[in-house]
Amino acid sequence: MTTLFTDLNSYSEWRNGIPAAKTVGFVPTMGALHTGHVSLMRAASAQCDVVVVSIYVNALQFNSASDFQHYPRTQTADVDLCTDANVDVVFAPSKSDMFDEKDVRIIQPSSAADNFEGLDRPGHFAGVVTVVDRLFSVVSPTRAYFGIKDYQQVAVISDMSSQLHPDIEIVICETEREHDGLAMSSRNRFLSEAARVRAALLPTALTSAITQWKNGATQTGVLIEAARAILTQDPTINIQYISIVRAGSMDPVQTVSALDVIIAAVVIDGIRLIDNMSFASA
I need a surface site. Which of 18, 74, 106, 210 has the fewest CB within 10 A? Predict the structure, then answer.
């Protein structure tokens, strides 16, 4: 049975009762949970004695008050999903438990945050690493689990954790996808039926670039153009960026190898979607 804690004191009391020899797996989320989150929970359950999932909608990482207000809050359904996934604890703290409103110490992210999502969403990654740092301190996990779908976020959090929480192991899990290849995301629920069909062009575009690489093309420009050609079949898709970076970093490459990752962001009917694929998975 999953236990829900909504205040810091109750959670801390429970956490202090966990024997030091037991491993604690942690899945930080903002709720609106889906099958992709469940895959992280299952990975944590397979590797750890105890699994904790946090649900906290972090205002610091939103670029507008409207986006924050409209983010879906589905705590009852989320807790039910965690129960079905055999999660031990859901920690859903209040803002006052997370931060002193008069003195929020904003952590500056590494240079991995400078481009791509960081350019489009100023301050976003500072908000991300600030809340993850706080959660790591409060939850005190052995391992923390993140999906590689948010590729840049994983790179930024990994950098922060190596500096501030070196004892926590960051476990990176593969992206869970819909039947047509679209990466699972809480944002998908905002897509209209027509936009949802068009969104499937994003994974198709990345796959096209990887196919070109398998066929012998190694220059970044050629592979990016292969992906762009798929997306431009639909003129309503707004391409934000397509790039190829070295695995585990945000460093651009010119000649592509199996250790590289193609990343992309598009906007479809106002909904921003991101995805990435590793050439090593080809």
Answer: 106
Compute the chain's Rg from CA coordinates: 19
Reduce the DSSP state of residue 252 to 3 states and report it.
strand
Residue 61 tokens read as: 């990482």
DSSP label at 187?
G
The residue segments making up the domain with residue 262 are 186-276
**Residue 281 domain-assigned (yes or no):** no
Total-model pTM: 0.94
CATH number of the domain enclosing 126:
3.40.50.620
Same domain, 146 and 225: no
In this structure, the answer to whether residues 24 and 111 fall within a common structural domain is yes
Q: Give yes or no for residue 282 having a pLDDT over 70.
A: no
Residues designated catalytic: 37
Contact between 170 and 144 (Cβ < 8 Å): yes
Tokens of 93: 């703290």
Q: In what order do the strands lie in the sheet with 143-147?
A: 3-5, 89-91, 50-55, 24-29, 143-147, 169-173
Q: Are 25 and 94 in contact (CB under 8 A)?
A: no
Indicate if 166 and 55 belong to the same structural domain: yes
pLDDT tens digit sequence for 1-24: 899 999 999 999 999 999 999 999
Number of domains in the chain: 2
